[in-house]
Design a protein that fits this description.
Number of domains: 2
CATH class of the largest domain: Alpha Beta
Number of helices: 7
Helix content: 10-25%
Structural class: alpha+beta
CATH superfamily of the largest domain: Fumarylacetoacetase-like, C-terminal domain
Number of strands: 18
Distance between the termini: 37 Å
Strand content: 35-45%
Length: 298
């Protein structure tokens, strides 16, 4: 199995950094205190740094069964934490044709701005969350109390080190209030950036690939344990290249602790669908992992 960098909580030791290999989690906190520390250490030699981390993991004395952390967060229960800490999370929008058409449908003015950005040289890239505000597996993802049309956006997220070199990939959920953004594109920060609006997990699959993995993203939404929506899309349908998005994200700025980029969604529920409290959202990306969350009102 490709190594996965994780963060987890155990009531005996608190918050920890680990490496997951198959069904075993190796506690590497004594060697690697944070995700940011690892990303900084990979600059210029990501592949070698990943190999070295695996060696360190296998030599550590403390291990856990991965299944032990498959639980909602609670003070006295082992559970996964979001696989980020000091990083910014940014997001690219309108990178799939389906996303372009959905944004145009929801926009009260016809959405010409979305058609233009889809075809433009410069992509849409916006700030989503600080790493400390991200929620992890089994935690609550938020829908705004002042919105009437809320949806999840299942996305492949790319993890970069401070040199904007790819270190790995993770499953992401870019929660969105479609009615707020649809009323006016200038409301996008309010539609996208709020409490519990970003989820990542279960861990970062460490893979310094210069290209997107060719894989399938799937989502299932359950209400009262019954499926109410499902969909899938291939990452081959992302219009923008990985190097292209990285190039624009890294322009005229810097990320000393690394950065995570959500790369857009190609799965959009029908216009008559909105999330409700207690809905279950499950996002699976083949070869990357499965992220499960429950919807809460914020």
């Amino acid at each position: 199995m490709t190594p996965m960098l994780v963060r987890f909580y155990h009531p005996e030791v608190g918050e920890r950094v680990g490496v997951r290999l198959d069904d075993t989690v190796y506690d590497v906190t004594e060697h690697l205190p944070s995700v940011g520390a690892f990303l900084r250490s990979t600059v210029g030699h990501a592949a070698e740094a990943i190999e070295g981390l695996v060696v360190v993991a296998r030599e550590t004395g403390k291990t856990y069964a991965a299944d032990e952390f498959e639980a909602p967060p609670a003070a006295f229960v082992p559970h996964w934490l979001p696989p980020c800490d000091e990083q910014d999370i940014w997001a690219a929008g309108v990178t799939y044709e389906r996303s372009r058409s959905a944004r145009q449908q929801e926009a009260v003015d016809g959405g010409d701005v979305y058609a233009r950005v889809y075809a433009a040289e410069r992509p849409e890239i916006f700030f989503k969350a600080r790493g400390t505000r991200v929620v992890g597996p089994y935690a609550g993802v938020g829908i705004r109390a002042d919105a009437t049309w809320n949806v999840p956006e299942p996305e492949l997220a790319v993890v970069f080190n401070p040199a904007m070199e790819v270190v790995g990939f993770v499953v992401g959920n870019d929660m969105s209030s479609r009615d707020i953004e649809g009323a006016n594109p200038l409301y996008l920060p309010q539609a996208k950036v709020y409490k519990a609006s970003c989820a990542l997990g279960p861990g970062i699959v460490l893979n310094p690939s210069p290209d997107f993995p060719q894989t399938t993203i799937r989502i299932t939404i359950r209400r009262a344990d019954q499926p109410v929506f499902s969909g899938e899309v291939s990452t081959a349908r992302i219009k923008r290249g990985l190097a292209e998005l990285a190039g624009y994200l890294g322009r005229s700025t810097e990320f000393p602790d690394g950065v995570i980029l959500l790369t857009g969604t190609g799965i959009v529920p029908p216009n008559d669908f909105t999330l409700q409290a207690d809905d279950g959202v499950e996002i699976e990306i083949e070869g990357i992992g499965t992220l499960k969350n429950t919807v809460i009102v914020v």
